């Protein structure tokens, strides 16, 4: 589709940097192991499979993969233990990214956020979808549609900062953040509009850095300059947003699914706010979405590594 081409510069940039060593936790189904292999073939990751070696070797044989072509870290046949082993590899610097295999998300994320994993930062963990829609001229980030249910003002500030850092890693010099609400007016009866106004001021006072934030903005004002002008909104963000920050997971999840299933948007997603990028791949994800997620994560991993030096 036409919108998919918006990912091409990111794919090229990720390819130029070489593969990032990635721990893939418990990839014991064809789709999860296949996603890791496809991302390797595309040139974005070097997968390190973490799980029971005998079962992984048998699955590789079923998929026609040569024995020894992928490195395996042998663990007991237990999802939680494999997840903890993968997180430990990231903590110890053996890998630069983590990728979910066929284990349950709660087992995977429990290992990521556990105190002993050492992967948490001072910020709230959040999720971001990088999206391309045919009706919008550039990539944009939708956050948070997967992790935070009803974030507080401070949690929204962390979500915004995480997304800004990702956008900068993807080449946007000063990302524009639209804080979405049902209206563009501050209304005390609608708490999300108060949070939006506060986030805008927090950015003005450098409590959130590296981007421009404006809100409250309704969705049409955020993505259409014409709609903003018709309502008399004067804003550098309106109609040109790089990041759409939603008020809660319900709004974000519905918007994400509307864009993908009705508008045919191309997507890539990852978890932010951790010391390494974390990929929550799903068996329902399209092949290209899984591969593009690895490309985005590789670029973000490079930015995190550069910041640590």
TrEMBL record:
Keywords: Acyltransferase, Transferase
The protein's enzyme class: transferase
Domain called Phosphate acetyl/butaryl transferase: residue spans: 84-298
Signal peptide range: none
One Pfam family cited in the UniProt record for this chain: PTA_PTB
GO molecular function per UniProt: phosphate acetyltransferase activity
EC number: 2.3.1.8
Cross-referenced InterPro entries: P_Ac_Bu_trans, Phos_Acetyltrans/Butyryltrans, PTA_PTB
Sequence similarity: Belongs to the phosphate acetyltransferase and butyryltransferase family.
Protein name according to UniProt: Phosphate acetyltransferase
Annotated gene: pta_2
């Amino acid at each position: 589709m036409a919108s998919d081409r918006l990912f091409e510069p990111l794919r090229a940039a990720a390819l130029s940097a070489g593969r990032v060593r990635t721990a893939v936790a418990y990839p014991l189904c064809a789709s999860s192991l296949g996603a890791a292999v496809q991302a390797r073939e595309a040139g974005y990751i070097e997968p390190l499979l973490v799980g029971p070696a005998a079962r992984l070797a048998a699955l590789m044989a079923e998929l026609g993969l040569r024995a020894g072509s992928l490195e395996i870290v042998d663990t007991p046949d237990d999802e939680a233990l494999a997840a903890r082993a993968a997180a430990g590899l990231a903590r110890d610097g053996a890998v630069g990214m983590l990728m979910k295999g066929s284990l349950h998300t709660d087992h995977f994320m429990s290992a990521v956020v556990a105190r002993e994993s050492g992967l948490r930062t001072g910020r709230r963990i959040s999720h971001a979808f990088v999206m391309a829609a045919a009706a919008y001229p550039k990539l944009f980030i939708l956050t948070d549609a997967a992790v935070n249910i009803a974030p507080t003002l401070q949690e929204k500030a962390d979500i915004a900062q995480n997304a800004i850092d990702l956008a900068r890693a993807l080449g946007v010099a000063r990302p524009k953040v639209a804080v979405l609400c049902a209206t563009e007016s501050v209304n005390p009866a609608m708490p999300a509009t108060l949070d939006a106004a506060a986030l805008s001021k927090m950015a003005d006072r450098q409590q959130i850095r590296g981007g421009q934030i404006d809100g409250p903005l309704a969705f049409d004002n955020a993505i259409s300059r014409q709609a903003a002008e018709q309502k008399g909104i004067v804003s550098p963000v309106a109609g040109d947003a790089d990041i759409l920050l939603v008020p809660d997971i319900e709004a974000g999840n519905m918007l994400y699914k509307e864009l993908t299933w009705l508008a045919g948007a191309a997507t890539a997603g990852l978890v932010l706010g951790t010391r390494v990028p974390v990929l929550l791949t799903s068996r329902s994800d399209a092949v290209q979405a899984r591969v593009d997620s690895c490309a985005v994560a590789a670029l973000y991993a490079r930015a995190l590594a550069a910041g640590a030096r």
